[in-house]
Amino acid sequence: MDEFNDTEIAKLLRLKRYEQPAPGYFEDFLHEFHRRQRNELLRQPLWRICLERARNLVLQLNLSTLTSSPVAVTAVVVCAAVLSLKIYQTPQPAAVALKERPVLAVPASTDEEWTLASPVATRVFSTRSLRNMTESAQTHRTGTPPRYVLDSVPVSYETTFKF
Amino acid sequence: MAGIAVMVGAASLFAQQPQEPTTISREVKEVFERCSKAVVKINATDQHGDLSGTGFFVDPMGTLYTAYSVGGEADKITVEFKGKKYAARQLMADLRSGIALLQVDLASPALPIGSSSQVEVATPVVTIGYPLDLSETPSFGMIAGFDRKCMGGYFPTTHLRVNLPPQRGEGGAPLLNLKGEVIGILLYSFENNSCYALPIEAAEKLRSDYVRFGEPRYGWIGTNVQEAAAPIEGSRAVTTKVMKDTPAAEAGLKPGDVVLQIGRTKVHEPEDILEASFFLTAGDAVPITVARAGEKITFQIQADSYPDGRLPASASLNRAMPLNLQSVPEGRP
To answer: Residues of B with CB below 8 A from A18's CB?
Structure first.
């Protein structure tokens, strides 16, 4: 911050007034916004995404009213039963995850943006998302017209009367 | 008989009047038909994405001019010519003047080079460009002025202000007189239905530099000039500083000398210095006439290249300063 004094900041701010977005910026704004939003979301670890979604679900369902109802009790019992069944069917879940880790390290390392915490979920989740994102980006790029060039503001680089 | 002659004369006058616009229209059409073959659409990619502009051939070996903002910092440059796309390579790009020189490996038509010094205000002109994703399009207008500065900032050399409606995608288009000769290169749109073009002489100076040296070679002699309180020998451009170990110092120029002429350019005010200095070439000798103590002295000064970082539009300087900002970073020469 010490690099700039008030005068220089004022000059920079004046320069900012002449900045114009590239052609097509506003047309693409919503698309770009959604793309970045998805991108940002997928950078979070999977457990955090799941936790956040579960919390949102609970808030939407208003859990306090459900605790007293028999429906909630039934749901909890069913979930517990399903989970216990799954645990019995997969004897060594931790080993499976570890075995898959090296395989999953390849796609994860090729694109750091898609690294997720859980290796099992990473493969399924990131592969699908990556493909979708790439396709949508390509579709978007081919549909986007190029910048049609004609500078709108003349610029000066001349230091006056020195030669 | 006299009455008949008067009537015939009047009839012929009336008959000629409607032909005026028809004549101009025909001339514009002829220019368009003759010149559009040498005007091409340029596609390229730069750090911001795909871009599209206009260029035109100036020799039969596929050399073409375009705007710096089209071909100056882009790669994967392609030229659309006769319905086919050809890869183009950049020969030279000059941010100071705002143009780039490209080349395509093909035998091409070429536009004849004219002279911007022969046009006057209100001279009709034509430009041919590729607006948006449309086909080649003529625009008709007239020279509106010859400007050295705009909104407080100076152009590197006098620019042609043209009253014609420019459109996006026409950056780098040729500005043509009604003979079909190039007199400028369209660079900037300006306000409504107006634009600026670099005079073709300035572009040709750079092409000449490229042919001789492989790059632009702006000349520098190492002096500062200011406006004098009163004119001496018709000039107000007084030398205020002569830098040490520069061509000016070695030739004997001194502070207080009033600059009267640089090469062929007569100097009347400091702004004339910009015009003259743009055309200096490093390594070439130029006669500079000054007034000193009541007498005129002419020095033959061999211009040098600009020292690192002192060339206007060099990489170390602000590369996007709008003309209406008069702020000059401290430490600039």
So the answer is: 322
